[in-house]
Amino acid sequence: MKxxxxxxxxxxxxxxxxxxxxxxxxxxxxxxxxxxxxxxxxQTNSNVGKxxxxxxxxxxxAENIIRNYSVEENLLxxxxxxxxxxxxxxxxxVTDKIVIKPTxxxxxxxxxxxxxxxxxxxxxxxxxxQTTKIVLNFLQKYVDKxxxxxxxxxxxxxxAITAVKLGAANAIAxxxxxxxxxxxxxxxxxxxxxxxxxxxxxxxxxxxxxxxxLIAANIQKNVLIDIADEIRKRISTNGKLILSxxxxxxxxxxxxxxxxxxxxxxxxxxxxxxxxxxxxxK
Length: 282
Known about the structure:
By secondary structure, the protein is an alpha/beta fold. The protein has helices at 16-23, 50-62, 81-88, 130-142, 158-165, 178-190, 221-226, 228-234, 251-259, and strands at residues 3-12, 30-33, 38-43, 68-77, 92-93, 98-102, 114-118, 148-152, 170-175, 197-201, 212-218, 235-247, 263-271, 274-281.
């Protein structure tokens, strides 16, 4: 019988998207999110072990993103992990209007619904996590017809796809991960929006365009602070900025930083311990 290695990762606070992000930097075979832990899978002959995983988690403590962590290693009989993963991904009704459907699920669109078809693969932004739901709620509220939209840290490109389906004239979606480049393009093709959404693998400082009507960034606090000046350069005078990926405890520091650049808070949404903020220029 073949076996695989399973690593059960718990952190305080529990930040599954962030932890998953740093785990994918290792040569692993899969990740599942459980109720209170992340499960990482590797083959038995993989060079990834407990020490390599703990080193990645230590970097998060050094950046004050998590306070502590634990890793438990198990040896288990091999399964069809793609099949197991697909069982866990369902159709998600994010709002009364926005529905996210994985390619392997059937769904009959109802009147006035916008259905986003995704093949998530190894990118982030399936609509399951609270931070993504927060931004999608804000998009439904703030996307006006024919606006220009910029998604910073785009993952699956779900935000750009949703913005265009809600009426945005066009969108640029950027991410530094090459998986997000290919997966974002694939998802835009699935939704027949390749002509309206420009998917790029780059950092924000490499985006020459500016004057965006709406910008969204669903990234952890430290990155949002680091790129604040670059965001300010690219938003229009009357534009709005959506920030997510934030814990309740991050709010004061984020508000202070963006206030110093001329932004003011105009809206806020909290789901569990996560918050999203909408800002505009004063």
